[in-house]
Amino acid sequence: MFLCTNFKKINSLAGIYRHRTNRFIIILLCITLCIVSTAHGQVYEKNLKADSLSLKDSLPVTKTKYSKVPLKQFVLPATLIAVGAFGSSVDGMRDFHLISRKDSVSQIRIDDYLEWGMLGWVFMCDMVGKEKHSLADQFVLLAMAEGINAAAVHGLKNNIETTRPDGRPYSFPSGHTANAFLGAHMAYKEFKDSSPVLAYSGYAIAGFVAASRVYNNRHWLADVAAGAGIGILSVELSYLIYFPIKNLIIRKSGNKAANNLFLAPSIQREGGGFYLSYRF
């Protein structure tokens, strides 16, 4: 009887320890993301010019000006991630006392399709508007942003034990919301100077995806807030990282790379991706 009582106490303490550890990880994530954003935000891009639709025309070195500026482009994603992390780490605050949930609701299924459809939103906008960068640049930027986004979302889901409103695991953060806002923010970056309507249109769809995840009892408000922040931050980081790397490769290889490099989207039954070919 004495041993059983001690085992119960040990299990209880272990549960408390895991819960506190998860809180610590979430808060540490928030601080880390803010530090990373600050470090990357010391440089920024200006007057990026790559308007041709052909890969050859997009390869000349992009004219970029780097200087120290206010970190306004990181305020929104950092705030969303911080709010989501706070809500998820404090008992009873995952919905911020803003909504009342029902145990059973009629499920909205379209969010499962919009999650991935939003990754192509910028290309749909290209058909009716004047994009800032070439199609080739957009493919690479999108691939980089999705790589950052997937690593952050799945890394957190697998390491932080949070339960969804419907009782299922892997709640924090919302991957559907992260992908939707990634696509929306990509369109914003490409069309904010030429077509404000196209630039902001994706956010309405992304907001619907986030709302449907909450309505379907698949996520808490804190989950979708953090997911939106991660999606936006992934795009911002991809724009900061890609162009310096692109310019360095072109300087090293010369403009002859334009005739040898081929990039195109690839869609198969098992999934989608990108086809990259370089002729030596």
Ordered list of secondary-structure elements with their pairings:
Elements: H1 2-40, H2 55-58, H3 72-89, H4 111-117, H5 121-126, H6 135-159, H7 175-191, H8 196-215, H9 221-253, H10 257-260, E1 261-268, E2 271-278
Antiparallel strand pairs: 1-2
Helix pairs in contact: 1-3, 3-9, 4-7, 6-7, 6-9, 7-8, 7-9, 8-9
Structural description of this entry:
Strands 1-2 form a two-stranded antiparallel sheet. A hairpin with a 2-residue loop joins strand 1 and strand 2. The model is unreliable at 1-17, 39-59 and 64-70 (pLDDT under 50). With 280 residues, the chain is mainly α. It has ten helices and two strands, in the order H-H-H-H-H-H-H-H-H-H-E-E. The longest helix is centred in the first third of the chain and has 39 residues, at 2-40.
